[in-house]
Amino acid sequence: MNITFKKNMPLALALSASAAIISIASPASAQSGYPNKPIRMVVPFQAGGATDVLARLVGQKLSAQMGQPVVIDNKAGAAGIIGTDAVAKAAPDGYTVMLGLSNSLMTNQFLYTKLPYDAQKDLAMVYRIAMAPLVLVVNPSVPAKTGPELMKYIAAQKGKVSYGSYGTGAYPHLAGAHMSLTQNADMVHVAYKGEAPMVQDLLAGQIQMAFASALQVKGHLDSGKLRAIGVSGDKRMAALPKVPTLVEQGLKDEAYRVTGWLAVAAPGATPQPIIDRLASEIQKAIRSPEVHERIVGMGFEVQDNGGPAAFNAAYRQELPIWYRLIKQSGAKLD
């Protein structure tokens, strides 16, 4: 047996080397020909929402650029967990990606004790397309007109002020809880099943304040039915350029600096060349005037350089902030 092995060793080595070359060349060849079939973009929310609209807008542009259809697949349910899990468990070949919110990619891991995936291991961050700053608005019955004035008001009206959110653990809840705690205001949190009913109750005076999207409240601000106090994040909104940030007004807590965001992610083991190609094409798409204009019109801030390196760096930086805000609020969803 030993003699036979030695005699055939050159042939065995040659076959082994050929197999190794084939195994290495095949993935490389597949990557160089990417994409050669339709790409599925999972949206972990229902059709018609802002995330879905953005996915269809970007997907259409990517399809034109890459020469393959980008098919939008809405997998709604469980605060984005169902759709996110489908992507985390998909083949890491670049043909299944997701466009999700910061809740599905970031905050759910702190709100749920058990998730079917590990967001930090099972998902690869591809491109952060847009930031989603919110505007803090009040019913006109509230006399405050600035951030500092509002802080004094809620402290003086301890236990009498209600604030709304479009879900437990969402940014409007976390920011409101932080505001209440720091001012010892004992505000009442009212969680709604969406932003629209929250705004309706704010207009009716059922709640006194809320963080909301420019898309939902701009018309009411223009008509005077609601009053803007300030904007979350470090930059003013392009959609509301005259409304100062809360940071500008001296409210520099991290709760008012962070904002939600919309981003593309892929299965965690997706090869880096494919991730880089996707990121490059997404950047090209959102830089086109028609797409850029639509995104800004939705009240979002376009990320001109939100590629893998920048996205991952920002993700690591924000991770402990969201953890602290959620822990402070006591929010749990399971």
Q: Spatial order of the strands in the main sheet?
A: 2-1-3-10-4-11
**Tally of DSSP β-strands:** 11
Fold-level CATH name of the largest domain:
D-Maltodextrin-Binding Protein, domain 2
| Stretches with pLDDT under 50, minimum 5 residues | 1-27
CATH architecture descriptor name of the largest domain: 3-Layer(aba) Sandwich
Walkthrough of the structure:
This protein is α/β, with parallel strands linked by helices. The protein has 2 domains: 164 residues, Bordetella uptake gene, domain 1 (D-Maltodextrin-Binding Protein, domain 2, 3-Layer(aba) Sandwich); 123 residues, 3-Layer(aba) Sandwich (D-Maltodextrin-Binding Protein, domain 2), CATH 3.40.190. It is built from 13 helices and 11 strands. The chain has a 6-stranded mixed β-sheet with strand order 2-1-3-10-4-11, with helices on both faces. Helix 3 crosses helix 11, helix 5 packs across helix 13 and helix 7 crosses helix 13. The termini are far apart.
Write a brief caption for the model:
With 334 residues, the protein is an alpha/beta fold.
Outline the secondary-structure elements:
Layout: H1 2-7, H2 9-32, E1 39-43, H3 50-66, E2 70-74, H4 81-88, E3 96-101, H5 102-111, E4 123-132, E5 135-138, H6 147-156, E6 162-165, H7 171-182, E7 188-191, H8 195-204, E8 209-212, H9 214-223, E9 227-231, H10 254-257, E10 260-267, H11 272-287, H12 289-297, E11 301-302, H13 308-329
Helix pairs in contact: 3-11, 5-13, 7-13
